[in-house]
Design brief:
Chitinase A, domain 3; binds zinc ion; five-stranded antiparallel sheet; globular; mainly beta; about 160 residues
Length: about 160
């Protein structure tokens, strides 16, 4: 079976950035499963996987624009600490959801915590980076009706199981 929209792909991957050979992210236990065509992985990687079959290996360089976007310094902000609940546990590097004026939520990453304000960055930590993936396709299968309804994979390798 070829990788197309609405198939489930199980793959092994390693992610490196331009500057180093260091693996900064990889599949847990050598397998990562996702549903194709539902915005579960960066678009630049998904596009390069279409048409591959089980057993295929590939190196894919994803530009920032097709990955986590270019860095936008206007998305770096400081908000009063009072915006957060009093018992909020701040951890640098962790994403939190904020709401805009229209009630739409968007993720920001905590950069620093000061006495009276919190420094936030609306850029993904990998924004502006070229992502160098090395992938191996382990399995391609049709998605279940339930998986299609949820927009993500269920079962082994599911990172968002509920
Ligand atoms: Zn689900």
């Amino acid at each position: 079976m070829k990788i197309t929209k609405d198939t489930v792909v199980v793959m092994d991957y390693e992610l490196r950035l331009d500057e180093s050979d260091e693996v900064i992210d990889s599949s847990d236990d050598g397998t990562f499963a996702f549903l194709v065509g539902h915005e579960n992985i960066v678009p630049g990687l998904e596009a390069e996987l279409l048409g591959l079959t089980s057993g295929a290996s590939k190196k894919v360089a994803v530009t920032a624009a097709e990955g986590y976007g270019e860095r936008d310094e206007s998305k770096v902000m400081a908000v009063p600490r009072s915006v957060f609940p009093e018992d909020f546990y701040f951890e640098v590097g962790i994403p939190v959801e904020l709401e805009d004026d229209q009630g739409e939520s968007f993720p920001v990453w905590i950069q620093g915590v000061k006495d009276d304000h919190v420094e936030l960055d609306g850029n993904h930590p990998l924004a502006g980076e070229t992502l160098n993936f090395t992938i191996k396709v382990l399995e391609v299968r049709a998605a279940t009706t339930e998986e299609l309804a949820h927009g993500h994979v269920h079962g082994a390798g599911d990172h968002h199981h509920h």
